[in-house]
Amino acid sequence: MRFGILGPLDVRTDDGTPLDPGGPRPRALLTLLLLDAGRSVSTRRLTDGLYGSEPPAGAANALQSQISRLRRRLAPHTEIEATATGYRVAVAPDTVDAHQFEAWSAAGRAALAAGDHGRAAARLREALALWRGPALPDLPDAQAEAGRLEELRLAAVQDRIEADLSLGGGSELVPELRALLAARPLSERLYGQLMRALHAGGRPAEALTVYEEARRTLADQLGADPSPELSALHLELLRGAAPERPRLPVQLTRFVGREPELARIAADLAESRLLTLTGPGGAGKTRLAIEAAQQRPAACFVELAPLTDGSRIPYAVLAALGVREGLRSPAADTTDRLLAALEERELLLVLDNCEHLVEEAARVCALLLAACPGVRVLATSRESLGITGEILVPVPPLPPEPAMRLFLDRARAVRPGFAGHARVAGICTALDGLPLAIELATARLRTLTPDELADRLDDRLGDRFRLLSRGDRSKAPRHRTLRAVVEWSWGLLDEEERELARRLTVFSGGATLAAVEAVCGLPYPEDVLASLVEKSFLEVSEGRYRMLETIRAFAAESLPDPEDLGDAHAGYFLRLAEEAEPRLRGGGQLPWLARLAAEQANLDAALRHLVRRDTGGALRLMGPLSWFWRLRGVHGERVATARELLTAVGDAPPSGLEEEYVLCAVNALSGEGDEPELVARVDAVLDAYRGPLRLPYILVLWAVAAGPRPATDAHALTLAGGSPWACALLDVGLGFRAQFAGRPGEAEECFARALAGYRVTGDRWGMANCLDPLGMLAHTRGESGRALELLDEGLAHVRELAAPEETADLLRTRATVLLHRGDTAAAVAHFDEALALARGAGLPDKVAAARRGLGDAARLSGNTAHARVHYENAVRECAANWFSIGETVRSLIGLGRTAAAEGHPEEARDWFRQAAELAVEGPGDLELADAAEALASAARSAERAAVLLGAATGLRGGRTEGDPDVVRVEREVRAKLSAEAYEQAFEQGRRQRSAAVSER
Fold first, then answer.
1. What is the DSSP secondary-structure string of 849-918?
2. What is the phi-psi region of residue 960: left when phi exceeds 0, alpha when psi lies from -120 to 50, beta otherwise?
């Protein structure tokens, strides 16, 4: 029999013949029984379901009568049995469409979580096809159960759409999603899916409008903002990038087995925030963690195996998150930056291989879990982290059946058509079900038969492999468990393969063919590398060879000359860095940035080696890498190394390495400039140096680290020599100095000249740093369209570079232009993105600027309460350094304008006066000009306001045409004065400049 209750009751015999159960009462009774198919349903529940909570007299007899009639109609196909408490229909749950739907939709959801999107889509379609109409229409009083089934149906539809999107679906899903949203306008998941479908279908603008629709709907109906997940998707679409799953390693083989472990991890993560997978080495903890993470909406994988210092764990997490530093990131704020990057995110953080850094990993986990409520941690380790609330999930060797499935799956990859063998079970037993051991064993099937493989296990491993043949051996330490596997595989290598494998251990993070040939001293190593790949000693991807950490540790034990090999490794990567350095400042910088990024682990290892062995070589390596670190926002991690090297070198640079010494000092200061003795020592080195500079970015890095040096302009020009790049850089500096001094025409000439120079070199960083101020100058003149053109070109350059600080700067400038043009929503989106980039890069002044921009947007929109919060947060973010004065001044002005908007003029004047007093400490006159315009808005007389507006124009060197605050004040003042009186007062202020502002 088959029963349908997802729609009008439908009863059919095994051959498909329909069967009529009777009128409304029998149909309702059968529906009640089918909801608990195979289980007893109490008489009370049946009575309530048929007659409601107040059944008529004689309802019990009426129920018996209804049961009798229903039995006759279902006989002989189905029995209704009497039980001690009620009745049961004697059918299996899977004969009822509602139960079948729940089972199939759960299977589809599991397949979706496992990444099998094709299977998920097919199974979910099968489940949804069971529906023929509304649930339980023959049981009108069962609203709760019908509602539950309808919710499950919606979830299944959304899961099916998710699978379709993962399979490349796009525009064809849009009509369905719009219909679903019309019925459920508060579903953020549906909004997100519609945005992704539109974006995948080549309709990104419509996708962005959907987000705005979601934001308005949630605000109007719930008074709430979109979730962090929906906001993150919106930001991805704004950046023009396709939405992608968070960073998890892509697996090249199928995942086999571990269904119970996956189910337990999913259940535990729903209830707990820290899980640790424990088990012997080779048991597959890492792969299991990755598969479990695929089930989460957002996850990030952090590999700790390469780390030797637990203090580097925060850097590893930041790198995995894609969080980069800015040009002036301080050195000691790594943990704070990590907490800031995660405090508002919903994320599963996978920390892999914690065992060798267990105390430090536990400390980082405890901090994250305490400060970031949306973060969950899934760790893999040989031992627990020992944190309160931690749940341990043991990962034992595979049981026999999944072990054999894994063997067969991997065997077919190396020997297509392999149909199994009688000795496979014995091989898996000998390998103790360890996935790594099975992977290595099946690789031998390229050259061995299953019988030969089994015989070798018996004959050659003997006592050594006995460690893997007992169940309690799974508790052995990681290196002993894997040693038996690796020793056996090592014995199958010839001597040439072993020698190259030993030498490959010098590389961190993999190596290219050219690096292997140069460092390992083996000409034409392609064949030996291919053999090692085939024997699973190496992995190869995109031209890089990588050795598993466990195999690397084993092979390194027998390396006869590690220091000499380390010298060869460091020498190769020193030459690579020196070759890359000039190319990082030209049109070909993108591939070289990518190349150095791929070799970052090797470059770091080479630098550490040289710090120990050759301080001169270490300086030579740190010098050319310094600009790469700044462009990619990863310099903070090298502060400790730079300080160690600086101490080893001493107070004076080696002859010929003055520039490298200065850059080492820059890296040791890391933008803070708070060590006067070191600053004075480096100033003396630069003053004595005659140049020209080989590494001209010293000019900008030292100015940022230690502050501007106007008195050294002539010497800087000498140091620049004839380098077009360095001369353009000096023009940028002169442009900012002229702008700060209120000479916009001269500033624009300098920036334009610098831009022309950078266009010759092709350097995107340089062009972007000219286009930003040129755009703002154009906007100040009232040419907002031209400003956006310049800023958009700059943004294109910095997005190619993936430079966090410059991207935040340009986004913030563009947001200001958009805000002044009245496009508040787009401006807020830019400010939000700039804020996220600045927070991740550890730039408090840039964070303050973005928050101040959000305050301006809120205030100009009439939301003074939100504006005040943004401005106050901006003031708190500002650091106590020379480049934060401007943002502090503008945030104080924002607080004053907010007070004025709320009807508190005295409070506004107080804020404006504080801003003016601080502005005189700034690097130029622009901050005081801003303060003068603010004071004009709160002046007690129109004449005084006109004087202040004139002073602002004099300080800035021109009028501000685009700022709505200034335009409004000028309009109001002109309305109160005659044209002659206004111009007279204005001219007085323009002549007096700062003196006019200081008058009371």
1. HHHHHHHHHHHHTT-HHHHHHHHHHHHHH--SSGGGHHHHHHHHHHHHHHHHHTT-HHHHHHHHHHHHHH
2. beta
Assess contact for 282 and 481: CB atoms under 8 A. Answer: yes
Axis crossing angle, helix 926-937 with helix 905-919, rounded to the nearest 10:
160
Taking each helix axis from N to C end, the angle separating 724-740 and 713-720, rounded to the nearest 10 degrees, works out to 160
Angle between helices 676-688 and 658-669 (to 10 degrees): 160
Q: Please say whether the beta carbons of 443 and 534 come within 8 A.
A: yes
Which pair of tokens denotes residue 869? 């919060």
Q: How far lies 892's CA from each of 506, 709, 849, 889, in Å?
A: 55, 28, 12, 5
- Six-digit token pair at 851? 């928050």
> Distance between CA atoms of 315 and 360, rounded to whole angstroms?
13
230 Cα distance to chain centroid: 14
Distance (Å, rounded) from C-alpha 30 to C-alpha 98?
13
Gyration radius of the chain's alpha carbons: 35
CA distance 541 to 536: 13
Token pair in block for residue 392: 């341990």
CA 30 to chain CA mean position, Å: 53
CA atoms of 160 and 759, how far apart (whole Å): 50
Task: Give strand pairing partners of 381.
Answer: 278
Q: How far, in Å, CA of 915 to CA of 930, rounded?
A: 9
**CA dist., res. 334 & res. 325, Å (int):** 10
Pairing of strands 375-381, 274-278: parallel
Nearest to 821 by CA among 928, 962, 940: 962
Whole-angstrom Cα distance, residue 254 to residue 250?
11
pLDDT beyond 50 at 601: yes
- 853-897: pLDDT as tens digits: 999 999 999 999 999 989 998 988 875 555 678 889 999 999 999
Sheet of 511-512, strand order: 511-512, 544-547, 538-541
Tell me the residue type at 392.
Answer: L
- Using CA atoms, how far residue 500 sits from 245, 479, 495, 523, 556, in Å, is 37, 22, 9, 11, 11
N residues, the chain = 1000
Q: How far apart are alpha carbons 287 and 373 in whole angstroms?
A: 26
How far is residue 415's CA from residue 634's CA, in Å, rounded to a whole number? 44
340-383 confidence digits (pLDDT tens): 778 777 889 999 888 788 889 999 999 999 888 889 999 998 77
Query: What is the pLDDT at residue 596?
Result: 93
Between helix 313-321 and helix 358-371 the angle, nearest 10°, is 60
Q: In what order do the strands lie in the sheet containing 274-278?
A: 299-303, 347-352, 375-381, 274-278, 391-394
Can you tell me the distance from the alpha carbon of 877 to that of 794, in angstroms, rounded to the nearest whole number? 26
Cis ω on the peptide bond leading into residue 692 (within 30° of 0)? yes
| Dist CA 539 CA 249 (whole Å) | 14
What mean pLDDT value characterizes the chain?
85
In the block, residue with structure tokens 């459920």: 184
Q: Residue 883's pLDDT is what? A: 61
What is d(CA 372, CA 377) in angstroms, rounded to the nearest whole number? 11
- Please calculate the CA angle 833-835-838 and round it to the nearest 5 degrees: 110
Q: 436 is written with which tokens?
A: 């790594």
State how far the Cα of 364 lies from the Cα of 359, in Å rounded to an integer: 9
Kind and range of the H or E run holding 42: strand 41-42
Of 552, 517, 554, the closest CA to residue 538 belongs to 552
CB-neighbour burial class of residue 869 (10 A; exposed 0-12, middle 13-18, buried 19+): middle
> Is the preceding omega at residue 243 within 30 degrees of 0, hence cis?
no
Q: What is the pLDDT of residue 281?
A: 64
Distance, CA of 482 to CA of 464 (rounded, Å)? 11
- Report field, pTM of the whole predicted structure over 0.70: no
